[in-house]
Amino acid sequence: NQDMLSLIQSMTIGNIYINYYIQSPESVVQELDVLVEGVSETMFQGIVFEIKNRDDKNLPTEKEIQLFVQKLELFTHSLKRQGHERVMLCPIYFSANGFEPDMEKYCFEHHVLAADMDSWGLQKE
To answer: For the chain, what are the domain ranges?
Structure first.
């Protein structure tokens, strides 16, 4: 996770996309909620967000987090097929009202940063 945080700190931001679609012959169209592209001559750099804004009774499930991890794998494969030899992604799963403890652990085990309103110092209304 330190590599991902270092990437974010040093990244020069190029484009920011909301609802970025991934089209691949192997699967149905997938959507990334937010993609922040970095500018680099040597690799593709990006920050990818999955965003959920639900009440605390409907926190993200393992299945939803698995689907996000699968989207990341598909996106990486797609970028490599486009000629990017090196791909460095920083995936962030933002759940406004937090996570079940097991799901936050699941995120970290799959190299996905977990964030919520509290961790970003934002007030819930």
So the answer is: 2-42+49-115
Q: Is the Cβ–Cβ distance between 90 and 8 less than 8 Å? A: yes
Assessment of whether the complete model's pTM goes beyond 0.70: yes
Choosing among 3.40.80.10, 3.30.460.10, 3.40.50.11930, 3.40.1350.10, the CATH entry for 2-42+49-115 is 3.40.1350.10
pLDDT in tens, the chain (125 residues): 677 777 778 888 999 999 999 988 878 899 999 999 998 888 899 999 999 988 888 899 999 999 999 999 999 999 999 999 999 999 999 998 889 889 989 999 999 999 988 876 766 66
Those residues whose C-beta lies under 8 Å from the C-beta of residue 54, and which sit 6 or more positions away, are: 95, 96, 97
